[in-house]
Amino acid sequence: MYLCYGIHYLLNIVTSSKDDPKCVLIRSIEPLEGLGIMEMRRKMLAGHKAISSGPGSVAKSLGIDSSFNKDILIGDHIWIEDRGVSYKPSQISISSRIGIAYAQEHATLPLRFFVKDSKYIKVK
Which domain holds residue 49? Predict the structure, then answer.
């Protein structure tokens, strides 16, 4: 977790070892379960694309805050599990990352992956 602009918590998953800064920022999710609690947290219907499009919205819809910082993703507090959802390679788009112009040449690397037809993607 980290706090962006002093306002939004962002779900950033470290994918490497300590002192090797490699991570994945979760920028959006497609709500499939827990819709009622997401609607309560975000004060909007789960079918509305803004409920979980954007990294701050993801954290808000999932109820993620600073208490999740440095959690291991195989615990009781937060975890990643295989729910059997899969996509064909033709359904996945790859692009450069967004919102990181300060990263200079690294900003243009093709390190952003998303489901092409998802309405929960802000910038396609």
Answer: 1-74
pLDDT surpasses 90 at 123 = no
Q: Which residues pair with 79 in a beta bridge?
A: 74
Q: Are 12 and 23 in contact (CB under 8 A)?
A: yes
CB 50 within 8 A of CB 39: no
Same domain, yes or no: 49 and 3: yes
Query: What token pair was written down for 102?
Result: 């300060």
Q: Say if CB 105 and CB 97 are below 8 A apart.
A: no
The CA distance from 44 to 103, in Å, is 34
- Say yes or no: 89 and 67 in one domain: no
Tell me: do 68 and 90 sit in the same domain. Answer: no
Q: What's the confidence (pLDDT) of residue 28? A: 95
The per-residue pLDDT for 5 is 85
60 and 28 belong to one structural domain: yes
| Exposure class string for 32-56: b at 16+ Cβ within 10 A, else e | eeeeeebbebbeeebeebebbbbbb
